[in-house]
Amino acid sequence: MTTQVALVGGTGSLGRIIHGVIDDLDGFEVRTVLGSGSDLDEMTGADLVVDASTPAVSVEVVRAAVERGINVLVGTSGWSQERIALVRPLVDSSGTGAVFIPNFSLGSALGTALAAAAAPFFPSAEIVEAHHDRKIDSPSGTAVRTAELMMAARHTQGPFQAPHVDQRARGQQVAGIPLHSLRRPGVIAKQEVVLSGPGESLSIVHDTVDSAAAYAPGIRLALPFTRDARGVVVGLENMIDIGIRTHS
What we know:
Elements: E1 3-8, H1 13-24, E2 28-34, E3 48-51, H2 55-67, E4 71-74, H3 81-94, E5 97-100, H4 106-118, E6 124-131, H5 141-152, E7 172-174, E8 177-183, E9 189-197, E10 200-208, H6 211-227, E11 231-234
Parallel strand pairs: 1-2, 1-3, 3-4, 4-5, 5-11, 6-8
Antiparallel strand pairs: 6-9, 7-8, 9-10
Helix pairs in contact: 1-6, 2-3, 4-5
């Protein structure tokens, strides 16, 4: 049986990539495409909602899907742990599944997992992320997720050292880690995690040079996973066997 998909934000850059993947994926079909200002009743009757809208409307998209008993795959950026906590009780009580993917790139998921694995071994860390100048939110959802997982990995070591963070030029603190955002023309997406300790540093860099090619494999994994999911799941790393497990 074909899974009918309601795609929210389907005319945006990520939405167009998702639409193309669904068109080429056996067992899935785009039933309807909604814009950020569409009536969310249009998703009624779908088997799966995919959200590639904007941070301003994404919460309402998730709530509308779950209230209708429809699983939802969220590719929209800006979903921190605090924001996910707002919808988690609704998802848990409804028996549906909500899957949040900060970044559909397999390389990005690996970079985040490696940063979390390295976090307990270094006393200092900072994250620099760069995106195109049309990206609405700063810092990126990928950077926020990376910082949260790095801090979670330091449950016995405590927070990172982060001197002078009262100064605005030191960046925005997320989970105790300074995050720095660049918005530049000619860039797709790049993230560098710099971990430092006595006498050494470790840099973990992920660079997206072709978004359609980079995101398509992750989207293909996430669609069937979300269709069958229950509860809240965060991160593409939960769908690939990389030997490192994180927590939603």
